[in-house]
Amino acid sequence: MKRLILCGCGHGHIHILKNSRKFLKNIEIIVITDNKYQYYSGMYTGFLDGIYRHDEICFDVEKICHENNTKFILDKVVSIDSKNNVVISKNHKLEYDYLSVNLGASQNTISFDKSVINSKPINNIIDLKDRISIEDNSIVILGAGASGLELAFALKNIYPDKTISIITKGHIQMEGFNKSSNKKVKSLLHSKGIKLYENQKINDVNDIQIPYDKLIMCIGSKGVDVDFGNLPVTDKNFLLSDEFLRVSENIFAVGDCVSFRKYPNLPKAGVYAIRQSSILFKNIVRTLKSEDLIEYVPDSNPLQILYCSNEKALLNYKNLSLYSHFSFLIKKYIDRKYMTK
Ligand SMILES: Cc1cc2nc3c(=O)[nH]c(=O)nc-3n(C[C@H](O)[C@H](O)[C@H](O)COP(=O)(O)OP(=O)(O)OC[C@H]3O[C@@H](n4cnc5c(N)ncnc54)[C@H](O)[C@@H]3O)c2cc1C
Fold it and tell me: Whose C-alpha in 30, 237, 242, 311 is 20 to 30 A from the C-alpha of 201?
């Protein structure tokens, strides 16, 4: 029997696991991941806010594997030897016929000081509230993208008496959000008492002019700490993939760990990783049947909803920008549907 190994268990692999029993019958599937849970970042700040419970924002990967007769290995992937078709993790060495990589990304950082918290991967900040103490009066978030902004809103809501600040290198410019949404976010920060410092080029902690007790990094990502051997990678260690989600003939890759040759500027966001998941699944099934593969074409205008705490959200779609409780309800519906389907 042929063997498919799933490295990491991001959104793409959750989709494969949930459909494997029906559509992937004559192949052995093994999952190697370093966390029993797969978190859904779209609900993370709602979890911080107390709207969602832990079990509502994550998939229990071990349980899903068990329910679908799939072998689950809790281990950290260290390297991939594509010449010999072997995945090496800390405690295992496994041969594969087909491989799929969905390992996410790691955080770009400017310091390894103990006051610094990396926001990626999301597993790293699931206990964020335990890591912020009563004595921490000033929390600074570096980076004003969607994740930095959501975190600022959540933290101000949880700790109204602490000083929450955001520092960014240019102006607020959330990727894929229109002008009016960016303007609205800026006025929301102001009305909630979150301090915003724009046009600050920070290369080092010494460049930060305001005092802080905790510094949260939200300044973009780099590839995971895995040696991909002979496989093609970018200078940031993102795997280079084609529009069929393939890195080589028998290796697929999706989500934040990938840079597409055809779409090098595609943002690293869960909305794209989730869209790729059904194409990945179909292409693995088609590969096994020696059928033609389906091309992945990213959505150029995805619906984006930024949770701004207090059960309100900012919905952005093309030229539409709507900050309201209704936007939150739409987000809640979409997120819950994704988690329970
Ligand atoms: C605070 C925050 C809020 C966000 N909010 C949103 C949002 O609202 N909307 C949105 O679209 N995006 C959001 N994002 C971005 C989103 O989290 C990522 O783009 C998305 O999770 C990427 O999905 P993925 O499937 O590629 O990988 P991930 O979801 O990161 O999954 C990777 C998996 O691989 C495992 N893994 C990693 N390394 C190894 C290893 N060496 N060995 C074994 N296993 C490993 C991990 O444990 C994990 O299970 C947010 C990010 C942050 C930090």
Answer: 237
* Residues of the chain below pLDDT 70: none
Cα-to-centroid distance, 123 and ligand 1 (Å): 8
Instruction: Output the pTM of the full model.
Output: 0.95
Q: Which residues of 283-307 are buried (b: 16+ CB within 10 A; e: fewer)?
A: bbbebbeeeebeebeeeeeeebbbb
Nearest atom (ligand 1) to Cα of 306: 8
Q: Which CATH architecture has domain 107-220+303-340?
A: 3-Layer(bba) Sandwich (3.50)
Q: Which residues form the pocket of ligand 1, taking CB atoms under 6 Å from any ligand atom?
A: 8-12, 32-35, 38, 41-42, 44, 76-77, 102-104, 119-123, 147, 150-151, 224, 226, 255-256, 268-271, 273
- Of 290, 287, 111, the C-alpha closest to 212 is 111
Helix axes 11-23, 270-288, angle to 10 degrees: 30
Confidence (pLDDT) at 86: 98
Choices 1.10.3720.10, 3.30.70.100, 3.50.50.60, 3.40.190.10: CATH for 2-105+223-288: 3.50.50.60
The model's pLDDT over 129-143, given as tens digits with 9 standing for 90+, comes to 999 999 999 999 999
